[in-house]
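[job 4471] stage=fold_predict status=RUNNING
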Amino acid sequence: MSQIVTETLSLYRNAFRKTGESLSRGRMTILAVVGFGGLLLLATQIASPLGMVGGFLLGAVNALLVGATLSLIEQSISATRTLTLRDIVGSVGHYFWDVIGIGFILWLPLMALDLGTQANPYGQLLSYAALLLVFLLLNPAPEIIYQVRHGSPIEVLKTSYEFVLENWIEWFLPFALILIPTVLSPTGLQAFFSLSSRSGRGAGLDFSQVLVLPFTILGGWLDYLGIPSSIGWYIGLLLTPPLAVAMLLFRGHLFASLHGVSRRQRRFVSPFR
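[job 4471] inference complete, writing structure tokens
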């Protein structure tokens, strides 16, 4: 048991170290995330009055921003040089069709879920449960898009499902730990289910959630530390972009360490590292 704990801590320590190195190289990604957030707000204002056409437009903008962000995270992880403004411009268009494809596959089942739960008195609870399941099983989809060779969105979803079944403890434990103050707050569980349901709808490929999730986590920790909400809101707003990028980088390094390697194999390799 102690060996398993030691190996898991070593896994996280290695991921944290690499995250720091990648954050130093890819600090321009923080600036990009801020700019992308502004573009999404502008697109939302433009698309709101356009009905269904606006919804498709907003979906395309979201896919463009998410794909560009994943490209920058990929470069921050794998590159040996510091990212520049040119890399931000060059990232636009990357993984666009991957994000669109996964969104399209999930669109019809989720629409059927919404329609099927409208007349059910327990509809909201059933919807939360289903979306939480989607959130859990498809959680590593962003990392699979830019780290694993795949021929179709179906393969991304299949690989995500298999990865979660094999590595669910190591993958979700850090996320569970940083969520503790949020979940323990008076409205914590409701906030968690709300976040997971929104993230589940896009399989983690909703750009707004890239920012909302760390902002909510920061708010929970600041509230836990006794910082007044009037001050904590501004602190959260300032720290959200770097935390969002750091979380994506940590996920990327953790996924790279876990994917394709079983617990037995990690236990065998560990003494020789």
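[job 4471] summary: The mean pLDDT is 85.
[job 4471] exit 0
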